[in-house]
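Human: My hope is that you can spare some time for a protein that puzzles me. I am handing you a single protein, as its sequence and its fold in token form. Could you go through the record with me and say what the backbone is doing? Take your time, and here it is.
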Amino acid sequence: MHSAASPNWLVAGKPRPGAPTLYCFAHAGGSATEYLRWARDMPEAELRAVLPPGRGSRYGQEMFASMEDLVAAFLREVPLSHKPYAFFGHSLGSLVAYEVTRALRDAGRPLPARLILSGFPAPHHRHVRASDPLHLLSDDALIERVAQLHGGIPQEVLDSAELRELVVGPLRDDYRILETYTWQEAEPLPVPITVLGGDADHSRKQLDDWQSHTTQPVTVRQFPGGHFYLRDEPGPVLAALAQALRGVGVPTGDLTH
């Protein structure tokens, strides 16, 4: 659906030559800059926030209709760091980071040294497509339903017709990607995984089940809160991210196959 290459996929934080690169994939309808704000308080990583078409400075560019299209474009258009790197994703961003890693593995390209996945259950729990998809709702109904289910939409957006118009397009397309996604069984990844989540969001079992998707260790941390627990108390979350990144760059065997 989207074929033109773009140099605008990444929004870079402060350069940190001695630190690994952390690519951040946003939640559905989310802003890359939200995660870029962590850069000041995270000397352990050089942050690069992923900015797909249709949002932020790329507003108005054609968005993707499927996970397959998004992942293929990312691999084709985004040059990944030559130094050690990791992926972080929240909610839909976790699923995108996971599928990008699988595609990198299938292409024989270097893999992230760690996946840090937040607010999303193990993907085999989503092997059935949504029977009542949100992305088919009207604009107002979509925004209000997502706000009811997960929160995360600022009150000023809910109160402003102009701001609703800006966010509803990316939100709808991201939910289309999520709700038309079907997990395909494949060999587990050879990448360690850190899973973060709010204790009022997904069950511990749904997070623990990420173990079946990697041959490496999985670390699970739950924090007080719901789907956007990481906004409520960012300090402990940033500390958990820093801990997860401590081993990035240390040789752990061949992670390319």
Summary: DSSP finds nine helices and seven strands in the chain. The beta strands are 10-12, 21-25, 46-50, 85-90, 115-118, 193-198, 218-223.
